[in-house]
Design goal:
about 350 residues, alpha/beta, Rossmann fold, 7-stranded parallel beta sheet, 6-stranded parallel beta sheet, 16 helices, binds uridine-diphosphate-N-acetylglucosamine
Length: about 350
């Protein structure tokens, strides 16, 4: 079997790196296509080096642009790549424009496409990611789900085992187990902040960065949190631009740094008292590290973390952000941490099992 894997954005490099190992262990040929959605050294190059991912077979170098431009360029390039490589299956991850383009290009050429992280729903169609997920799931052969909430969401849409739904667990948990022992040494500017208790923050979602009212609300929330503990904010390039465009003064006690690598992020999580984020992946990575999380969104796809009390939704409202942070920082006992919410750390192996079974049944 020959698998063409499509990646393009930061979290996809992490997820694909652990599945690549599982594919290689079973002797399956994999070709890696990087759309070039993320292209900076800090957003892409460092991840490849750190995670030991070989040079992609093909890099489309699409770069940034409007959704239509970015996705259109990818579609064209991925179609050509599929025609050149003639893979048996195409593997896509998550909910980015690269995911959508990979899925559409493959299904239109009659190549089965399998979706890792299927079934996640925020039920907020204003998010580009929600549209990407819904469309990708609709055309995928295997819907490889990380959680029971994802299985339930697909069941409500009429999809079950007979239509390719499988629960395999979360490859990000596999990644933490694979790389957790290799946390990076931190640069001196980061070390200076994290040598004491601190709060780790990330914010990059378009719904927050592209809305000055929400971005101001979040920074007012951070100002209040920083009165309690120093705040470290590794900043996504989109957010850096948005802060400047909205004329926001970064509050005292909020330390803005360049984006960090995956191993640096694991090291920071290992030492943080609290995470505030609008990222999907970081909500879970905080949980894996035993750190509570306040989510800077009005809804989450990872509802199980809210249900068990490890995550509180605070939106972009300063008062709610500060109150949720206080709730976790006041020293009271954290809730018990359930095991197996995200599988047993062998999601990658189960994914490969499913690919082999689906190919044998074709
Ligand atoms: C994308 C995904 C988002 C995911 C995130 C992970 C979509 C619709 N969104 O968001 O779901 O959580 O990746 O990080 O696919 N930029 C750079 N250098 C880079 C990459 C981006 O400077 O290497 C800047 C550009 O100004 C660009 C902006 O960041 O316009 C946004 O990048 P883009 O890839 O469009 O979306 P993300 O916000 O990164």
């Amino acid at each position: 079997m020959k698998v063409l894997t499509i990646v393009g954005a930061r979290p996809q490099f992490v997820k694909a790196s652990v599945v690549a190992r599982a594919l290689a262990a079973r002797g399956i040929e994999e070709l890696l296509l990087h759309t070039g959605q993320h292209y900076d050294q800090g957003m892409s190059g460092r991840f490849f080096l750190e995670l030991g991912i070989p040079e992609p077979w093909r890099n489309l170098g699409v770069g940034s642009g409007s959704h239509g431009i970015q996705t259109g360029r990818m579609l064209e390039g991925i179609e050509r790549a599929i025609l050149d490589a003639r893979p048996d299956r195409v593997l896509v991850y998550g909910d980015t424009n690269s995911t959508l383009a990979g899925a559409l290009a493959a299904v239109k050429l009659g190549v089965p496409v399998d979706h890792v992280e299927a079934g996640l729903r925020s039920y907020n169609r204003a998010m580009p990611e929600e549209i990407n997920r819904i469309v990708t799931d609709a055309v995928s052969a295997l819907l490889l789900c990380p959680t029971s909430a994802a299985i339930d969401a697909l069941a409500r849409e009429g999809r079950g085992v007979a239509s390719g739904v499988r629960r395999v667990g979360d490859v990000m948990y596999d990644a933490v187990l694979a790389f957790g022992g290799r946390q990076a040494e931190l640069a001196s500017d980061l070390e200076a902040v994290v040598s004491r208790k601190f709060v780790l923050v990330t914010c990059h979602r378009a719904e927050n960065t592209d809305d000055p009212v929400r971005l101001n609300g979040i920074f007012e929330g951070l100002r209040r949190v920083a009165l309690e503990l120093p705040v470290l904010l590794p900043v996504h390039p989109r957010t850096r631009g948005a802060i400047a465009a909205a004329g926001i003064d970064v509050p005292m006690g909020v330390h803005v740094t360049e984006p960090v690598s995956y191993l640096e992020m694991l090291a920071l999580l290992g030492r943080a008292s609290l995470v505030l984020t609008d990222s999907g992946g970081l909500q879970k990575e905080a949980f894996f590290a035993g750190v509570p999380c306040v989510t800077l969104r009005d809804e989450t796809e990872w509802t199980e973390l809210v249900d068990v009390g490890w995550n509180v939704l605070a939106g972009a409202d300063a008062g709610r952000i500060a109150a949720a942070a206080c709730h976790f920082l006041d020293g009271s006992q954290l809730p018990a941490r359930p095991v197996n919410l995200y599988g047993d750390g062998h999601a990658s192996d189960l994914i490969v099992d499913e690919l082999i079974a689906a190919e044998a049944a074709r």
